[in-house]
Structure formats: C-alpha cells, structure tokens
From TrEMBL:
SUPFAM superfamilies: P-loop containing nucleoside triphosphate hydrolases. Belongs to the TRAFAC class myosin-kinesin ATPase superfamily. Myosin family. This is Myosin motor domain-containing protein. GO terms for cellular component: cytoplasm; membrane; myosin complex. Signal peptide: none annotated. GO terms for biological process: actin filament organization. InterPro entries: Kinesin_motor_dom_sf, Myosin_head_motor_dom-like, P-loop_NTPase. Pfam families: Myosin_head (PF00063). It comes from Entomoneis paludosa.
Length: 244
C-alpha cells in the first residue's frame, strides 16, 4: 500500500505548510509512532485499504500544494504569475492523476464569462498563491468532513444494531464544540466573527445562569444576596450598537 512515491525520504521540513519545528516528541511519542496509532484508530472506524489511501493521498496533495513556488514572469510587463518549481508541479500532477498543464492553467488563469463570451485573465503572484491556498484548504476541509462522517457511521447504533430487539431503545449523546477566543499578532475579519460569537455565547450563559435565576428568586420572594458577574453588554454594543 503506497500513498505516494514522492513521500520517500521526506520529513516535515520538506513541506512549506508544515515547516520546521524543534519539537519532534510529544508525551514520549515521536511523529512516526503517532502515525501508527493514527492508522490503528482509523481502522477502528472502518477506514482501511482504499479508503485509507484516498484519505492520505488527499493530505499529501494538500502538503504538495504548499510547495508550489510562484514568481512574476520576467518577460511579461503585467507581471503575470508563473510556477517556477516545475518538479513540484510535476509531482503534484502525478499524485492527482492529471496533466501538469491542466493544473498550471487552473492556478494561473481565471476564466470569466460575460454574455456569450469567455475571457481568460492571467493572475498575478498574489492572486495565484491565494488560488493554490484556497484549493488546499477546500481539499482539507472536505477530507475532514468525510472522516467525521466515517466516524459517525461507525459509531451509529442504528447502523450497527438495526433490527435487534433493543434497537428502538438507544439513547443519544450530543457533543457541543464552541469556538475559543482568538487573538493573533495580526487579527482579521475571521477573528472578529469568532470572538463576537463567543461574546454572544458568554452573554447567553450569564443570562441563563445568573440573571434569570436571580430574577426568578426575586419574583418568588426568596432572599438572595446580590450576585456579581461580568456583564459583557458593553463589548457587544461595540458591534451591535448604532456605531458598530
């Protein structure tokens, strides 16, 4: 079972998206040890054989996309982008099973349609790099969602015990995963949306746990000392208010 011959003699420093790290051991296990554990865990949820190879090849495609080097064409006055790393492009085409020329055109040219006409617009380096990164992100996202579906199918009681006498008595376990606050050296619109969602969740929590309970006690005439808690209304007003 071979994921891709191009992975031979490579490590994390071989791929730009991963980069260099001085840390190669976490909790006593190296990356190769964790890889074997990952393979064993995937087998538990039915990801074996061809399924496993497809998943790993998708990840290899993502890694290889990050290795494409884009530069401005020195012979073009508009500085259209060209892929200077020809071997990296060839390797990417090999693992994807497509022609190099097809990939190159997809990354370097935008096709626009107006009425019944079609235009080919060359991209500059920044635009072409964004195109490659967006493609890598989309592949990774779809691979992640596919893996989640595999786990759900493997752990679904209805799928595994359908037709048994107790199949109608299965309960459910609900998992809620919420965003964590983000603060980077450079924060963008994505961080604003994530942190805004967190502030709304925090407000909902304080209202349900503190404010509503306190109001209920007061309505029933039950003495309750004042409960002090942080109110983030002023933070939300920055976004939701008239000046937001």
């Amino acid at each position: 079972e071979e994921i891709w011959s191009g992975l031979a003699d490579t490590d994390q420093e071989s791929f730009s998206y991963v980069g260099y790290s001085e840390l190669d051991t976490i909790e006593g296990l190296k990356d190769q040890d964790r890889f074997h554990k990952t393979v064993e865990s995937l087998a538990l949820v039915g990801v074996t054989g061809e399924k496993k190879l497809i998943l790993f090849r998708a990840i290899a495609i993502v890694l290889q996309l990050g290795n494409l080097v884009l530069e401005p064409d020195p012979e073009d006055e508009d500085a259209r982008a060209v892929i200077s790393s020809r071997e990296e492009l060839k390797d990417l085409a090999e693992i994807m099973g497509v022609e190099s020329e097809m990939l190159e055109a997809a990354f370097l040219i935008r096709t626009m349609r107006a009425r019944n006409e079609e235009f080919k617009v060359p991209l500059n380096v920044t635009q072409a790099k964004d195109s490659c990164d967006a493609f890598a992100k989309e592949i990774y996202a779809k691979a992640f969602l596919w893996l989640v579906r595999c786990i759900n199918d493997a752990t679904c009681a209805e799928n595994n015990y359908q037709g048994t006498p107790v199949s109608s008595n299965f309960g459910t376990i609900g998992l809620l995963d919420i965003f964590g606050f983000e603060s980077f050296e450079t924060n963008r619109f994505e961080q604003l949306c994530i942190n805004y969602a967190n502030e709304k969740l925090q407000q909902k929590f304080t209202q349900d746990i503190f404010s509503s309970v306190q109001n209920e006690y007061e309505a029933e005439g039950i003495e309750l000392g004042e409960i002090r808690y942080d109110d983030n209304t002023d933070v939300l007003d920055l976004v939701e208010g008239r000046s937001g």
